[in-house]
Design brief:
The chain has about 450 residues and is mostly helical. About 65% of the residues lie in helices and about 0% in strands. It starts with a strand and ends in a 5-residue tail after the last helix.
Amino acid sequence: MSQADRVEIGSRVNELRISLPIGRFDVPPRIASISRRLPGVLLIAWVLTLPLEFTKLYFPNQGIELSRVVLGLGLLVFAAQTVFEHREIRLPASASVFGLALFTAYAAASATATGSSQGIRTALAMVAYLLMMLVIFNWTRTQEEHRRIWSALAVSAVILAVVGLILHVTDSYIWNAPNAGIARVNATFHDPNIFARFLAFAMLAMVPLAADLATTFRQRALWVVAAFAAAIIFPFTYSRATWAFTAVVAVVVIAVARQKKRALALVAGIVAVFAIVAIIDPSVLSRAALLVSNLQSPFNNRAFLARAPWLEFMRFLPIDSVRQYLIAAGLIIFVDHPIFGIGFGTFSQALTGQYAGLVPVGFDTTASHTSLVTILAETGLVGLAIVLVAGFDFVRSTLRAGFASQVQRTLVVAPAIALLVIVLESQFSGRLFDEPYLWLFFGLAYSARAGWEQE
């Protein structure tokens, strides 16, 4: 194993290379030709199938969905290429990658030690996503491969926006219709908040790509159309927290864009589309008004305050009543188990068992909606330390990296923006390390930071 810190022009940097001690097999030319084409096909297929969560309804085991089948095929092809074609395995030379792998291993050990079936399933999914992240790093060796993946995401955003709009107009659902209350669009996702997350990072990642990346008119037009298509359906997710986080990240997008006027014009257009939809449909404004009402609804759960007076600070958090007791319960669990937590994947189990008394009468939600609280409660200070160190190193190395070109800079910024959306939004909807898009964008960011081979 050797580290290529500085290599000739046209090669990638900041990576480790591993050659397995396996003899080379004679691969027939036809098979070799197919092998060269498969990576691009499988990566595009994975991006296009990632939103199709509803496909799990058509498998005997609902832990399987179409995107996971594609992921499995990708891992098998990569393994076959490594074994039969004696290809090098390239790894990002980054402490944050080690941190992600370490947290995955720690989560698996924690779930196994506590016998959490949910935790074990999530940890196995994380292992698969971590491996797929490394496959993305190995298979995206040129700028054009990155562009194709972003175009696939744009196509996905346009299709889902159309599907979401049709479902909204017809008041119908592919699955998981709400039991009561406001009719929130979830399209092909189980949770409308996750659909809102998808639309948010799709909109905002397209801004630096369209504003800064020199490309064909057709490709830029696709990215712009994707951003505006997502903006049209975005209000009907009624995801108030995601609306707020999107506004915050939009400011960041403008700040980091090289072509600030273009970026500002695109963001202004997205805001204008949202505003027009909100004016046309009063339900959007009424839902937004509820966000304001949270600012005037301080935490006043006397049972929690009697048990933990230090929770008084929650009076200042603009969150709804469900997240109030979930966050408070998670913090109490953390204080009771500060070092290793109660075990990865056991938050809901704890609130239906040992800590059932922390769930107020009349409420039945036990799944944590705040990823930071989940990490604290389930993995303790050990898990939090691993995550913070990995996150800090990723941000630090990204900010300090010297990019060889504007193209490389843009292709690092776009996934970083998407990652920021996911991390922020997961504080209200949960699903951080089991979010497949998290690992997709990590893989693209590491690959872009490493540079390019000759195209």
